[in-house]
Amino acid sequence: MMFNRNKIALALVPAMLAILALAVQESDASLQNIISEKEAETRAIADRAQALFAGKCGLLSKCKPSECSMSAEDRTTMVPQCGNEPGPGMECTEALGKPSPDTCKGCSQKSQKLDFTEGYLRLPLGAKSQAQLGLAAESACWMRGLSDVFVKNDKARQSAGTLRAWQYFGSHSAGVTNMYPGSQGAYARTDKEGCGNYDPRRRPWYVAASSGPKDIILVLDTSGSMGATDSSGTTRLELMQAAGSAVLDTLTQNDFVSVVRFESTASVLQGSSRLQRATPEKIKSLQESLSQTLASGGTKFIPALQLAKQLFDASTVSNDASSGCQKVIVFLTDGIDSSIKSGNSFTSSWNTVVQDLSSSRITVVSFSLSNDADDSGPRNVACDTGGVWSRIDDATNPTAAMTSYYELLAQSVRTPNTVAWSSPYEDAGGLGTMVSVAMPVYSLDELVGVASTDVLISELEQFGNYNTVLNSLISQSQSCPDFRNVGNFTCAAERLRVASQCPGASLPSGCSATEGATCSAISLNDVSCSKFDSNTLKNDDGGWAKLNKVYCCGCPVLSAGAIAGIVIGGVVFIAVLSYVFWKKQVLCCKHIKGRSQKTPTNAPNAETAVPMQNKNNMFAANQQVAPAQQVAIGAAPTAAYNPASQAVSHPAVVGAVPAATAPAYPGPSAPPAYPQPPAFQAA
Asked: What pTM, to 2 d.p., does this model score?
């Protein structure tokens, strides 16, 4: 019998394995299906953006000033995230969870105001030239047409029961963002007067989509001169650390990274002999190590660049240390290496290093930090490897000045990448762990911007565990875009090389020397229905006090009539109390006057006429006050007060003048403490 059971069990094993394999296949298929659905949403936004951009000049004439209260269909302007005037589609909803408790104190903690009828406008923080403002207005005008595809995608998400956030598009020319659903709350505000900085071109989803997977090494100067301080007391080393950390923040799990620090010698931060996958954990670890570097020693360029080349050579796709795509060095120094030159010419050692990098198709983007830094060496290695060079002047933040790095990566791609998935991150609004799927949009080979949507990891984990999901997303983003060589650069990329003063760099025929609006000029007032400062992002109407109106739900609101009633009532209340106190004081004075008039003129001295046992009684009589005054002082009455006679009933008071010995109010001259009107909070 036992033998038969074992045979049956053994016979069932293949069937069970087949069922398990089928379940795994179905799970993988379901995971791939939802990944494909999210990519299709993003592709729909990208396709719509491309069509709108192609017809942008015809749209500009239609963007005219209009009120935020008009419907999205009738309005030709966008609602700014930094304003205090919401669109009419704003509603209280629990679709995206609870609001920020710090922002909505005293209001409902169950829902927040969101606009699912349109996306809202946002600009990067910082000063902008007139050309940049023109590009921002132009971008906002045509980008407002993305709301229809946002709404269509949202309806599909509602039907599927998936999270309704977030969809967005970031323009490349001006960093304008159109984000859906529209919100003016915690996702936009970071101070009490306006929006914090948000530049889509510096976000990982944008950089990943516009440049594809890459291998990147930061080669950073930590020589003694980096300890010099600027006018604010910040050292160059601290500025460099912040700039390096910002570059690391743009990387995703599809990239591979390492950091080389150098002075007289060079070493790899954290000591790895190969590049590491840029997971969120690795990025955080590198940032912590970078923050602990110290400034010391001299300045030698060659050992640092040779070490970077060795790291690239040791990192391959087969050992999971390379993306197999573009290789980039970000080289930053504030010093001068006299050993790379002999007279006015570069030494053979330097030329060999530059040639090795160029032949290995390693692009160098270099920066000379400070007015005293060497420009010849960093510019030479950048120009000869198809990169770009920039000088970052004293008192200039290198984080903001490293635009050329991002611009070169984005504008040197020959063919657009299909999609890019970001590394997992925690949503700023507390929705949970999310990933973004992004796709670039091009027009005539130049980058227009990047479309993106967000997805909760928990939605993907329904069809596989965390590692399975992560590996699937990485595999979706592994294809390498085709990078242009120097001879085929676009206008935007070639403008960077001209600005770098690279020998032989010139603009191709038909390229303008500067980037600017290409259609009829419009202003931000033509595309924004609520006014705000384009540089500081501070709104012109109401400040933080009005935020509960546009973001929080269930807040106590007082109407104009109610406010007027409270004010008038408070005034009347104060007037009545003042009259009562004044009347009591008058009665008291009359009483004192009457007492003094009844005192005999020939009365003997009080000390001889009043028996000894009545002295204390006389003193007590002199301390009597009206009942209203007794309440204020807090003392119990010791004698009967008769308002009709204006006298105190006491057996023996002769020749006494109570008003002279007892103050009317507690303290030398303290006035009565009138009650204050009730406080109220404006809506």
From this structure: 0.74
